[in-house]
Give the backbone structure.
Amino acid sequence: MSQTLVMRPERLFPASAPERAIAQRLFKLVENLPIISPHGHTDPQWFAQNANFANPTELLIQPDHYVYRMLYSQGHSLEVLGIPRADGSAAEVDPREVWRLFAENFYLFRGTPSAYWLNYVFNQVFGLECRLSAATADHYYDTINAALATDGFKPRALFERYNIEVLATTESPLDTLEHHQTILDSGWGGRVITAFRPDPVLDPAYEGFRQNLQQLSEITGLDCFNYAQYLEALRQRRSFFARMGATSTDHGHPTARTEDLSPVQAEQLFGRVTTGSPSEQDAELFRAHMLVQMAAMSLEDGLVMQIHPGAYRNHNAQIFGRYGRDKGADIPMSTDYVDALKPLLDRFGNESKLSIILFTLDETVYSRELAPLVGHYPTLKLGPSWWFHDSPEGMLRIRRATHEVAGFYNMAGFNDDTRAFLSIPARHDMARRMDCVHLAELVASHRLEEDEAAELAVDLAYNLAKAAYKL
Amino acid sequence: MSQTLVMRPERLFPASAPERAIAQRLFKLVENLPIISPHGHTDPQWFAQNANFANPTELLIQPDHYVYRMLYSQGHSLEVLGIPRADGSAAEVDPREVWRLFAENFYLFRGTPSAYWLNYVFNQVFGLECRLSAATADHYYDTINAALATDGFKPRALFERYNIEVLATTESPLDTLEHHQTILDSGWGGRVITAFRPDPVLDPAYEGFRQNLQQLSEITGLDCFNYAQYLEALRQRRSFFARMGATSTDHGHPTARTEDLSPVQAEQLFGRVTTGSPSEQDAELFRAHMLVQMAAMSLEDGLVMQIHPGAYRNHNAQIFGRYGRDKGADIPMSTDYVDALKPLLDRFGNESKLSIILFTLDETVYSRELAPLVGHYPTLKLGPSWWFHDSPEGMLRIRRATHEVAGFYNMAGFNDDTRAFLSIPARHDMARRMDCVHLAELVASHRLEEDEAAELAVDLAYNLAKAAYKL
Amino acid sequence: MSQTLVMRPERLFPASAPERAIAQRLFKLVENLPIISPHGHTDPQWFAQNANFANPTELLIQPDHYVYRMLYSQGHSLEVLGIPRADGSAAEVDPREVWRLFAENFYLFRGTPSAYWLNYVFNQVFGLECRLSAATADHYYDTINAALATDGFKPRALFERYNIEVLATTESPLDTLEHHQTILDSGWGGRVITAFRPDPVLDPAYEGFRQNLQQLSEITGLDCFNYAQYLEALRQRRSFFARMGATSTDHGHPTARTEDLSPVQAEQLFGRVTTGSPSEQDAELFRAHMLVQMAAMSLEDGLVMQIHPGAYRNHNAQIFGRYGRDKGADIPMSTDYVDALKPLLDRFGNESKLSIILFTLDETVYSRELAPLVGHYPTLKLGPSWWFHDSPEGMLRIRRATHEVAGFYNMAGFNDDTRAFLSIPARHDMARRMDCVHLAELVASHRLEEDEAAELAVDLAYNLAKAAYKL
């Protein structure tokens, strides 16, 4: 007895009739706007090679830590799910069996954004009309598998079907961007750009930091163990990334700390962090110093700076040891911005030409620190609800906590930040709906006129991201 | 002119018609389920002796710090209210006069959960149909007093009338559990179990810590000033508690800090904290170390571990000096979990057989730390909104802040945590209603199907607590 | 094509019909109550001299950092806006041109409380019936300008029209209160009182601290570099302020820290902070000590104590250097109360005769620390949502987060805290409406009876502030 899967037109909208009607009118204005996806983690190889995706499990479960962390939390091991280990190996698992396990446990996702995104993909992308459960597992597997083998489900076809105007991936300075080059050379019209994420060569605590500098030396022909040449190498890679389409950098430090060291101090610190094993204090200080250096370079080359701090990465030591990074065990921490950003803002905060987008995993700073900061400093913009907060409740929380102090026009619109390519329209659909819910709330209580809300809906869905990321 | 007291069938439900209707349908499914009360502070002696309660003041005011702290905050002294002092004495007060003072000031409780619980008890348990005020104080006193003298209002009768399937009390390892033994021996069918709360012998800053160890030595015949025997004594007492029905332990440390010291370090630290007066740092370190030891023992004996950190106990020095612990002057503090629990989780976080339920008084960690932690680690479950947050708004806040990331199935259902026996059904009634309000919100905005919500309502009201506490 | 500006009677009320109806009924009870404004920053000179205000720009933009910080955040310099510099000079700007810039950018304020306040003033005070935009900029400027030249828009006339029962300004102990004296001498019936804000002579980090003590010595004839005479000088100034109508003191320290030093320690510390440049630690310790001294004096002279901690003042170093204090660059910080207030509460927390009103910019402490503290200590009351949180969402957040634990009767009602005199009724209108929204929520879900809510609405709008500030 399988149950119907329906994506109702009024989904996510409030039940109350006057608010729902407003939300629906606003949503009509943004529903079909092209997707601007200025920050994410899809694989450029997909668009370069345009090969068919393998099977439902490899596409939807194994790369998505949102999905398998929930199964893991309920006692299903990563082995059983066939998650690749740090050494590249993986347990031999039958993808259909993994899918069945997922299907049996799909009830665990009730009320989560993952369920929303997945159901959207199942229904809107694959045309499935019954709910996923043990009973329908094989039907799902076969239907999706069959679709994936067709041309219409190749990456570029989906990109076009999804009406994506621009999609940014995220690469390390050590990346050759060969896939982006292939895309550019291919003559395909899809705009897939990169973003410059230098954590592996800025963070002395990053796995393989010294090898990374070695590799950076090789790529640039500079001696990246010499501080001046190291800075020059970063400048060169930023310039290369910009030529390949990048309009932004991204920085995922544990904290938002910034420091503006003197050249002499900086050089000494650089010496300490590149030889031997640096202390935690030195590593933190170097990351802090380099954020200010990155801002200085952004002022030169115009790349928009994204600061994504506050995750305790790889919190689960056993999982990290066996499976490596990004396995659903990053946990947010209390994060300060007001003290942390002071050195950066003292130097560059009043530069209208520099653009810095702030993100957080610590929702307590929305109203306390971020809204007042972006509501004052010309350089600062507020990014959307991030990661664990990229959900209906999370989206309402950030809007309600910030719009009154930050103003809507100090916001950077939405970005989906996803590894799960198929879910991109689902995520933008959710974000656009929730913005309409929020605006409808304001209109219904006469805090906005509906014509103002109509403009804001379009700005939040499209214009603000395009402007903030210079796209 | 006394006003009517009515507990409306639709109380606590949203005003909006579509949501209200859904909430009502869901509530019908859970309204009459038996009560699982796996954590609380009722007195087992009540059920052992089954004596009549004395009078309204002694039953409803003097033991309930929720109630008298509000009167105290408005300038009514604990003397006047007849609250017992630390030395066991109490001012001679006329219980009827105290009741009158309470009645005159009952308006102070407007909008508080105490008002809800008390009105429920007045109306549903004692059949009172006018509101409590100066005008009705004597009528209330006489009505309740008369009822309390009858058999129907004896503890066991109320336990049965309340449809309590299981009720856990909380005892120290120094407790002989004689009342629980009496209950077991009595042949009465009510399931009243204990829970193991070792703070008095784990926390070097606890009043009388050394005497407590002395007493533990006497009870167990072991030398509890020897570290190995101390651990063995704890093991024995846990085992005794488990035989007496306990399925859980409870830990009310000031912080959630854990440490996994080596045996040598631990033994040295134990030496320091059991001789002379330990430093604050040593006391904290020892509590932290012992939490990991308790987890190790839980993995052996299967007791579910509850961690209840974050209260600044006895904040009011004058009140503590004169009246002792638990007088309404415990104040929550900012509490970290992500760093604090790391040593414990490094060692045991991936053990599916170990079950740890986390509570907090710091709501900022709901979405930032707790939901991500319980949404990843197999050992962890999220406890309900606790203490100051055990209220309609508090319940909605924890659900809205966590369900999307934690998932509902990483939650431990509800527990009432009360000293006020009479209010138990009122508290479960409130919790069940608020869960239905939350679920109705999700259904009305098409984030859940109603059949999913129906299952979740029953799980949240009954199954999850039963499973989490192994009842 | 200018659009209509309407202040709808049902503005800010919920869209849902049953809640809206309740909110409207409650609001009718409070809409026309006199305004109690016990804390604010209007200029007493206005009421002393009763001169006409100059022009719309000088009245509504240049003194209001809420307004110009938003323009600044979008790249409009303070120079262009004609904001006065720290040295008293200002760029020569045409006020009409500044007004036009403001009008063009008025869309930036969409959804902010500033837009609400301004639209209220435009419509209700100046009778404007089209929205402010580039197209209507001149019409606005001319209309407002014309009105300002009339007698009906002089400060005292507006005070009367606004139905203000009492208005407190805020002055330093160094102020001669000459304007208040002029008002008292004038025979005008308006009650404009002062409040004692001693930060400039209590905070060793305040600009010109030593000169301030020098000036205090001159005013009092005491040697304020001698600790005992310094305390005596403060006592004298408090007494003078009280004679001039003050009923309260106000303390805007960076943190809520308090310390109760011994006289010897205090005298030594005083020596250190008044000679040479004190360390940050000493400055903090001295502020902390002086808060307890202020409480001691309040117990003597009956002045209500307001504690307003948690702002990182003058965060933007360049703006501070050029323009000085209060230029929209104060950013809230994470603020602790539970540890910070302990020394003060240990000494005075149980004094029913001492009244301390707590404010915060850190909303995380609403439910975690402030509601439990004010719900226990007889000395403490909870102030309204402050500054960045003085907005529809902010007001709902504080009420929902605190009323259940604090109780309504441990709250201090509303205060507008404004420099923008014209906006005072707009702010009280917003606060009264939002309190009715909150109460309607409780009534609609049967958490309050409507007759209880009716009493509470009047208490929150009028009685509680009057009582808390002893007015």
Remarks:
- The longest strand of chain C covers residues 164-168.
- The mean pLDDT of chain C is 97.
- Residues 280-301 of chain C form the longest helix (22 residues).
